[in-house]
Structure formats: structure tokens, C-alpha cells
């Protein structure tokens, strides 16, 4: 009866009104601010990646910047349309992992999940280093301190996200708006220029354009296309984090995805047009976006506004990973592929363990790269392309199975996208293999192996626990409670009161040592115990070494041997000070005993807190 009542109350509470947790979830606008920063900020390094590849063919090669960008914009349109469909078909989030899990099998879904994990982790490192690179382009004297600045920015973003994804979105709305307005202003003003207003940003920096090369081959164009597709990173983040949106979640996420695609496409094409109009030449030590701002707006306050806005948004674009990866880890934890702790949520819908794990790994990557963006970008693109390819291949199978209105056209769209991103994955891996991409080639299967290992461990644990099977009825056994004591006090009295309430038999134990002072202490305790006469035997445990946990654990093992059918509980009394700082005054004896008993016996451990109010 009580179970039925609890279920009916739960049902009534879920239908009575809006979810109170919705205030800690995202709207379309805050979702755009929290989950699209990665994609929007990639305009700072995506066009530059294209230009740097084409520069190998000299000035003639740079003339292909706009056609390559248009091809990337076309792929962007395909991806946005595809991920809008993913959002509708998989409203519980997970993106390519969820698609592959349903349509491509478990192993492929793990490849997708591993690629997403690598993508999110690398995104944090790339975003932070690119943001600091924008800062050092404007203020070269800070270049030597870029690693310290990177770690400080990472710490700031982590602290903001520990307060909740909605709180982080509110913080990032203004920087996002400033960046988007600054880029569109740069484009609009530049379109009315006949030539660069200023080249001061590039003065004194060596050009990286090849002098003699003039041939532009298909491989070079493919490499430029693949490198430029780093600008598409983050397109999948909204589909991965649909549960973070308010109801109706799928519709809000689809709106955010469409706005993201429109803004990103317009900015990429606009910047490519300006690169061609100003015949920009990439140079060492200064970003392409900085040169465009200089050429369009002049080397004045507007130039520094663009650089500062770019730096802020690039640094904050790491927030996309903090919004997407914890949700993905929650799904993986539910499927027993990562530790279950990642499925836990704190207040404000915060996946605290996921946030902290992401911050720790990203910090290690920053230390590995020394804060250099170019070291990380080759690693970054591979995971992105793998995720894109898996998601769109899965959606082709989805349309074939589900069918429906115009399913052939949708399947063809997803198939074309899968082909393009698959080619991009192969080209990036081949061309960047010796630049560090080999690390991802090794890390991806190792991560899949780790996920499989965790799953097997949970499977074995489940079998041992009999999860999914009806257990035998509970039966009563003899209960024996062991209470470690060191002297007579209210704590000892409270511990014995609790012990006699729990068990059929209670034994107090104390560890004694063979030193004169210790012998006197033991004799005094034995005399006081006899005078008190609590009705509980006091057992002395001699110890040759000054340890506490070992003798207690050895005694518990002996009790198990002499009473094989008994349920043994070790009740450890501990004081809880009235003030936090007073905890440093405690000797932690209880924790030492608990660890020894847990490590060496099968006894139950009960830690009794005696509050000193």
C-alpha cells in the first residue's frame, strides 16, 4: 500500500506543474550562449587554418580561400540540418553516441563517444590557447607568459561552470553578443573598403607565403578544406546537450542550432571575402583575424576591441565542452561505460565530477602544449570529423528504417555529409600524422578499450550482486558488535548504548602496548572499567607495534573464525567538534581503524558521530 501511495504521489508531482528544475536549464538564447561559443569563436582560427595551407602554393593558392570556405559553408548547412534531425530523433541528448548506439552497434557508439570526449577535451585547450594568442597578438609583451594566462583562464571558466550551466550562460551572453557584433561590423566596413586601411599589425612579422610555388593541386585543396573544417567544431554540442534545455527541449535546441548555423556561415563567408579583397598574406606571430581587423577598421581602438572580444570569446568558448561533456558522461555512466559518479548531479543541475575531470585533463594538455594553439589544432580536427561521420552515417540508417516524408532526400543529405566528413577525417589524419595527429590515432582506440574495460567490470559486479534477479528472503543471524575504546567518557557510554541496541552480543576492545607508561594507562582503564561495570566485556589486544587498525582487524578476523555464522559489526565512536577548525585537533584514530577493518575483513563498519554542541 505504501509503495502504491508513493508512486501515485510521484505521478501527481510530475503532472502538477512545470519542473522546478527548469529554472536551472537553458532557453534557446542562453543555450546559444552556453553551447555555441566553440563554433562561433572558431572563425578566429578556421579561416587562418585554410590560409596557412594555401600559402604553400604562394599568392595563387590564396586565391582559392573563398571557394574552399564556400565548400565548408555548404558542409555546415548539411551538418546543421542533420543535427536538427538528430535533436528531434534523440531528445535525450548524446548526439553521435546516441545515433550510433541505436543504429550502428555498441562498438561504433563507443568510437563516437571516445571521439566526442577527445573533441571536448581538446576544444578546451584549443579555445583557451587561441584566446590567449589573440591577446598576445595585440600585446606581444605577454607572449612569454601565455601558459600562465591559459591556466588562469581555465580556472576561471571552471569556477563559473561549477555554479551551473544557466549561470555560465548568463555570464557569457554579453561577450557573445559583443563578439558577433564586432565581427559583423568588421565585415560590413571591410566590404566598403577598396584596400587595407592599415597593415601595422603585420609590420615586422615574417610572411609565411611561399615565394616560388604556384601549383594548386587537388590534395592541397583537400588539405585546406580539412583544416578549415576546424571551424565546424561545436556544431554538434547542442545535440549532445538537449537535456540541458527547458521544455519543449527539442524545439528550443533546434532553434539554437539553426541560429548557430546562420551566424557561423555568414561570418565564415564574410571573412573569406575580405581575405580575398585585401589579398591578405599570413604572417608569423599575428593572427589572420587581427590582420583583417587592422585592414578593415584601422590600427585604432576598434582594432583592440575586436582583439579583446576575440580573446574573451575564444577563451570562453571552452564553455561548450563544460556544457556538453558532462551530459555525455552522464549517458555513458548510465550505460556502465564510465564510473557512475559522473551521473551524479549537484545543486543547479551541475555535473560537478564531469566539470572537474574535464578541467584537470585540459590543464594537463595545456602544460603539454606549452600554451601553443598550433600544437593542438592537428589533434583537434580528427575527433570532430569522426563524430560527424558516425552521426550522419547513423542518420542514413535511421531514415531507411523509419522512412516517412521525403526520407530519401534526407538520407541523401546525410550520406553526402558523411562522405565529406569521412574524407576530411582521412585527409587530416594523413597530412597531420607527423605533426601530432598520431596521438589521436593511438588515443582513440585506447579510450574505447578503457570504456569497454569499465563496462566489463560493472557487468562482473552486477553478476556478483545478482542485479536483475529476485534475491532470497532476508533471514536473521546472530549479531556481534565490536567497539574499539581508548578510555571512559560520554563517547564510550554513547557507543555502548548504541551497540547493545544493535547487536545480540557486544565486546569492547582496546589496543595495549608494552611500554611502562602504556601499561599504566591500560591498568587504569581496566580498573575503571571494573568499577563502571557496564555489562560489556573489555578485551585487551596486545600489539608489539604502535598500531591501532591492525590489531582490531586481526581480532575481527578471529571472531569470524570462531563464529562463522555471525554478522560482525565494528562500531567506531568519533567526536564531531562544534566548529570546523577544531577538526584539526582530532587524531583521526577512527579513520585508521575503519580503513584497516575494511581492507582486511568483511565486517560491517558503523561510524558513530558524537556531536559536541
UniProtKB/TrEMBL annotation:
It is a multi-pass membrane protein. This is Amino acid permease. The keyword Transmembrane helix applies. Residues 1-16 have a biased composition (Polar residues). The chain crosses the membrane at residues 26-45, 51-80, 110-134, 146-164, 171-192, 212-235, 256-275, 301-329, 350-370, 376-399, 411-430, 436-454. The keyword Metal-binding does not apply. Pfam families: AA_permease_2. GO terms for cellular component: membrane. One of its GO terms (molecular function) is transmembrane transporter activity. It is found in: Membrane. InterPro entries: AA/rel_permease1, APC_K+_Transporter. Residues 1-22 are annotated as: Disordered. It comes from Streptomyces venezuelae. Keywords: Membrane, Transmembrane, Transmembrane helix.
Amino acid at each position: 500500500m505504501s509503495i502504491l501511495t508513493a508512486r501515485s504521489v510521484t505521478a501527481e508531482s510530475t503532472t502538477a506543474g512545470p519542473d522546478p528544475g527548469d529554472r536551472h536549464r537553458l532557453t534557446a538564447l542562453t543555450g546559444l550562449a552556453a553551447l555555441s561559443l566553440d563554433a562561433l569563436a572558431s572563425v578566429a582560427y578556421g579561416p587562418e587554418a585554410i590560409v596557412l595551407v594555401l600559402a604553400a602554393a604562394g599568392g595563387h593558392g590564396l586565391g582559392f580561400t573563398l571557394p574552399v570556405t564556400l565548400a565548408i559553408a555548404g558542409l555546415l548547412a548539411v551538418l546543421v540540418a542533420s543535427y536538427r534531425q538528430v535533436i528531434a530523433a534523440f531528445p535525450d541528448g548524446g548526439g553521435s553516441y546516441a545515433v550510433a548506439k541505436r543504429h550502428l552497434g555498441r562498438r561504433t557508439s563507443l568510437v563516437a563517444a571516445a571521439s566526442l570526449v577527445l573533441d571536448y577535451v581538446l576544444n578546451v585547450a584549443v579555445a583557451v590557447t587561441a584566446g590567449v594568442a589573440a591577446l598576445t597578438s595585440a600585446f606581444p609583451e605577454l607572449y612569454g607568459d601565455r601558459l600562465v594566462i591559459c591556466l588562469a583562464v581555465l580556472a576561471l571558466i571552471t569556477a563559473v561552470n561549477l555554479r551551473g550551466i544557466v549561470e555560465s550562460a548568463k555570464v557569457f551572453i554579453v561577450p557573445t553578443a559583443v563578439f558577433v557584433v564586432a565581427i559583423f561590423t568588421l565585415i560590413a566596413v571591410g566590404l566598403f573598403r577598396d584596400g587595407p586601411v592599415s597593415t601595422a599589425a603585420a609590420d615586422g612579422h615574417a610572411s609565411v607565403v611561399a615565394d616560388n610555388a604556384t601549383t594548386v593541386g587537388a590534395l592541397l585543396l583537400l588539405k585546406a578544406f580539412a583544416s578549415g573544417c576546424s571551424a565546424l567544431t561545436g556544431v554538434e554540442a547542442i545535440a549532445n546537450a538537449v537535456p540541458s534545455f527547458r521544455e519543449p527541449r527539442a524545439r528550443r535546441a533546434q532553434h539554437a542550432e539553426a541560429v548557430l548555423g546562420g551566424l557561423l556561415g555568414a561570418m565564415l563567408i564574410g571573412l573569406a571575402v575580405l581575405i580575398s579583397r585585401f589579398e591578405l598574406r599570413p604572417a608569423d606571430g599575428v593572427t589572420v583575424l587581427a590582420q583583417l581587423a587592422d585592414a578593415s577598421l584601422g590600427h585604432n581602438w576598434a582594432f583592440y576591441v575586436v582583439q579583446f572580444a576575440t580573446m574573451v570569446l575564444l577563451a570562453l568558448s571552452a564553455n561548450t565542452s563544460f556544457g556538453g561533456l558532462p551530459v555525455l558522461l552522464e549517458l555513458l555512466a548510465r550505460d556502465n561505460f564510465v564510473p557512475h559518479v559522473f551521473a551524479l548531479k549537484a545543486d543547479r543541475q551541475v555535473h560537478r565530477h564531469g566539470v572537474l575531470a574535464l578541467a584537470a585533463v585540459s590543464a594537463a594538455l595545456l602544460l603539454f602544449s606549452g600554451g601553443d594553439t598550433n600544437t593542438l589544432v592537428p589533434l583537434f580536427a580528427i575527433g570532430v570529423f569522426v563524430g560527424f561521420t558516425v552521426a550522419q552515417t547513423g542518420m542514413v540508417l535511421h531514415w531507411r528504417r523509419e522512412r516517412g516524408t521525403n526520407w530519401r532526400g534526407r538520407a541523401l543529405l546525410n550520406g553526402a555529409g558523411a562522405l565529406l566528413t569521412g574524407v576530411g577525417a582521412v585527409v587530416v589524419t594523413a597530412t597531420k600524422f607527423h605533426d601530432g595527429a598520431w596521438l589521436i590515432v593511438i588515443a582513440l582506440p585506447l579510450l574505447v578499450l578503457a570504456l569497454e574495460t569499465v563496462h566489463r567490470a560493472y557487468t562482473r559486479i552486477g553478476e556478483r550482486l545478482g542485479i536483475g534477479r529476485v534475491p532470497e528472503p532476508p533471514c536473521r543471524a546472530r549479531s556481534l558488535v565490536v567497539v574499539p575504546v581508548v578510555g571512559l567518557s560520554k563517547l564510550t557510554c554513547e557507543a555502548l548504548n548504541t551497540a547493545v541496541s544493535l547487536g545480540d552480543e557486544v565486546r569492547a576492545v582496546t589496543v595495549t602496548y608494552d611500554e611502562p607508561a602504556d601499561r599504566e594507562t591500560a591498568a587504569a582503564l581496566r580498573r575503571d572499567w571494573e568499577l563502571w561495570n557496564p555489562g560489556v566485556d573489555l578485551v585487551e589486544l596486545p600489539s608489539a607495534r604502535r598500531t591501532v587498525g591492525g590489531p582490531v582487524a586481526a581480532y575481527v578476523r578471529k571472531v569470524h573464525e570462531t563464529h562463522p555464522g555471525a554478522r560482525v559489526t565494528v562500531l567506531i565512536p568519533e567526536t564531531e567538534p562544534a566548529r570546523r577548525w577544531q577538526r584539526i585537533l582530532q587524531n583521526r584514530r577512527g579513520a585508521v581503524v575503519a580503513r584497516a577493518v575494511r581492507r582486511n575483513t568483511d565486517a560491517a563498519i558503523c561510524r558513530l558521530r558524537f556531536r559536541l554542541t
